[in-house]
Design goal:
The complex is a heterodimer.
Chain A (H helix, E strand, L loop, with lengths): L1 H4 L2 H7 L6 H13 E6 L2 E6 L2
Antiparallel strand pairs in A: 1-2
Chain B lengths: L8 H9 L3 H23 L2 H20 L9 H22 L22 H17 L5 H12 L4 H8 L3 H21 L8
The chains are: A alpha+beta, B mainly alpha.
Chain lengths: 49, 196
């Protein structure tokens, strides 16, 4: 693992790649569906379609 | 003519916290190369890297929506830190869990093996140990002494240093030369110490 962290060429090469559209869309959909409900001092998460 | 002003990260974060979902898309698009590039450079598996990327932003989304984000102006370093921690978690998990190929003829013994040596291996191991022990007489006295204390008596280097009345560095040096010399002797005499 140390070698991986010290290999800058890998990092340079990797900068050209990007996550798939599905991956990003999932995050955007997740964000839209996630609601935080505040009740007194408590916070609840709710996933709403 | 005025050129359109680029929206700052802090403004995008604020806008997202206030409910503008489009701001998240802008934040992701702005930094996805850097963050995903960092993750894949460490993990080197596209699918796993996407999982870590998603987990990173799930944490980001939850923190922002819960109003717990308090690092205004340092969005990217904060996200990179989350990604970095998740990469470390990934390596910790993968070191703990046995890996096996998903082949149809799955062999349970490829992941579970009997750590005990069988009779033959045990005899060979004993033979090797006895061969190594007999080679120790070839070493200079001070090196042999350190090696025996460390390997056979399991003393720490601090204890060895105390018992032989030298500094820890000297004890370490003697151990190093003992191993180098032992390898030399093994090479010179063409001794094969391994099982195969």
């Amino acid at each position: 693992m140390t070698n991986l962290y010290l290999n800058p060429s890998l990092e340079r090469k990797a900068k050209k790649v990007e996550p798939s559209k599905e991956c990003v869309n999932f995050l955007l959909d997740y964000s839209k569906s996630l609601k935080i409900i505040n009740y007194k001092n408590l916070q609840f998460e709710s996933i709403q379609n | 003519m005025n050129t359109p002003r680029t929206i700052t990260e802090a403004e995008l974060v604020k806008s997202y916290i206030n409910g503008n979902e489009h701001a998240l898309s802008q934040l992701i698009n702005r930094h996805k190369h850097k963050i995903f590039g960092f993750i894949i450079s460490k993990i080197q598996d596209r699918d796993l890297a996407e999982d870590v990327f998603q987990d990173t932003f799930i944490k980001v989304i939850r923190t922002l929506k819960r109003g717990k984000y308090n690092e205004e102006g340092k969005f990217l370093p904060w996200v990179m830190r989350i990604a970095h921690n998740l990469v470390i978690d990934h390596f910790r998990k993968s070191n703990r869990m046995p890996k096996f190929d998903t082949k149809s003829d799955f062999d349970i013994f490829s992941v579970i093996k009997d750590e005990d040596l069988n009779a033959e291996s045990s005899i060979i191991k004993n033979q090797i140990e006895s061969d190594v022990k007999s080679l120790l007489v070839e070493l200079p006295e001070d090196q042999r002494e350190v090696l025996e204390m460390r390997i056979y008596n399991e003393y720490s280097f601090k204890e060895i240093a105390y018992k032989t009345d030298v500094s820890i560095n000297t004890a370490l040096g003697r151990m190093r030369y003992a191993l180098i010399n032992l390898r030399k002797i093994i090479d010179e005499k063409n001794i094969i110490l391994t099982e195969k």
